[in-house]
Amino acid sequence: MKRTSWIAAISSVVLLAMSAQQGSAVEPGGFSNRSFRGSYALGIIGTVASVGPVAGTGVLTSDGNGNLDGSETISYGFGPCVLTLTGTYSVNPDGTGTGSVTVLSATGGPLCTSGNGSTVTFSLVLSGKGIADKIKLSETSTGFAILAEGDRQ
Length: 153
What we know:
Structural class: alpha+beta
Helix content: 10-25%
Number of strands: 8
Largest sheet: 8 strands, antiparallel, barrel
Number of helices: 2
């Protein structure tokens, strides 16, 4: 009987420790710009109203102070477009936020290069503790229905 009580007590301690580790998914006081910092590998999929389906991959690097840079390779079905981006973002305490990026350079043909200098807006949501380990971005610019999901590298 004592052995059963001892095992039950140990099991309870282990369960309490595990639930404390899983606890809240946010920093004390909530998320902030500092929660989104480092490099994130992106998978991108969606539709551009004037072109059709798009898909691609990229890397987005944020500094934790509201600034980001990135590169993407996207296919519009006409061959790949290679984009270099820079922008800003703002994160709310609940992990949601907004941002915008400007295309610094776009190579890969006339459709791609027509994007040089364009700015797009997005909404975002972070998940994870401390520094976000995942990010989801949804483009909010007119004519675009694009979702990107990223994992911290």
